[in-house]
Structure formats: structure tokens, C-alpha cells
Amino acid sequence: MTSRTIIAFDFGTKSIGSAIGQEIIGTASPLRAFKANDGIPNWDDIEKILKEWQPQLLVVGLPTDLHGKALETITPRAKKFANRLHGRFGLPVELHDERLSTAEARAELFAHGGYKALSKGNIDCQSAVVILESWFEAQWGDE
């Protein structure tokens, strides 16, 4: 097991959540939500966290339906976002199934902070945490 620093993104057209984790311990923490204009973030803001945390890998949640099939509008846009991350910053990017990550994130936030914790930014960042921790679990399942 390596000890790479990894940043995950929960792509959305209005907001993109982010989380950071260490592969060696397999846990993630919320970073921040980036406002997006029709799926396009302020790339300078993304660059700032990448420079600050210097991850070795980026993980982008891949939205699918409950059966793992691509969603007509959002799945291709999440892939495009992942491609742009790779193209702009030269870091490896992996896509990871994010089925039910938002529902799980809402439940987690509500359990710890009630309705006050359910802001859009909190949900998006917690979704990124769920995506990254799920990615870690998938990696360990391969060993």
C-alpha cells in the first residue's frame, strides 16, 4: 500500500465538492465546494488546492443510475471535467462510480449536525468524501 495524497471531486453543474485523503489510512476529509457555471469551475481555485495539497492522483465521481448505466446528460459532463483536470494539471485522474454518494453524504451530515449541516456545499464535499473512501475500499478489495 502506498501513501499517495488523493483529491476527489463530486462533479455538479452548479457546485463541485472536493475531499482529500491519504491512501495509507484510507480515510478522507472534506476540503471545499467550488461554484461552477454550467459545470465549469474557476480553474484558478482548483489550481490553488492542487498546489497546496500536491496530490499524486485525482478521483472524479462518475454519476450513474442504480444499475451502473450512464446518465444521459451528467455522466459525459463528469468525464469531460475529469479530462480537463488531467489536461490542465497533468495529474492522473480516475473515475469512480458514485452511486448513492449524495444520499449517504446527507445521512452522515444529518447524523452529526441535523438540518443545519445540510447546506449544498457541505453535501457536495461530504459526497466527495464518500466517493474517495469508496475508491479506497475498491483498491483494497483488489489485494
Automatic annotation (TrEMBL):
Could be a nuclease involved in processing of the 5'-end of pre-16S rRNA. The lineage of its organism: Bacteria, Pseudomonadati, Pseudomonadota, Gammaproteobacteria, Vibrionales. Belongs to the YqgF HJR family. Its EC number is 3.1.-.-. The gene is ruvX. PANTHER family: POLYNUCLEOTIDYL TRANSFERASE, RIBONUCLEASE H-LIKE SUPERFAMILY PROTEIN. Residues 4-105 form the YqgF/RNase H-like domain. It is found in: Cytoplasm. This is Putative pre-16S rRNA nuclease. Keywords: Cytoplasm, Hydrolase, Nuclease, Ribosome biogenesis. Its main location: cytoplasm. InterPro entries: RNaseH-like_sf, YqgF, YqgF/RNaseH-like_dom, YqgF/RNaseH-like_dom_sf.
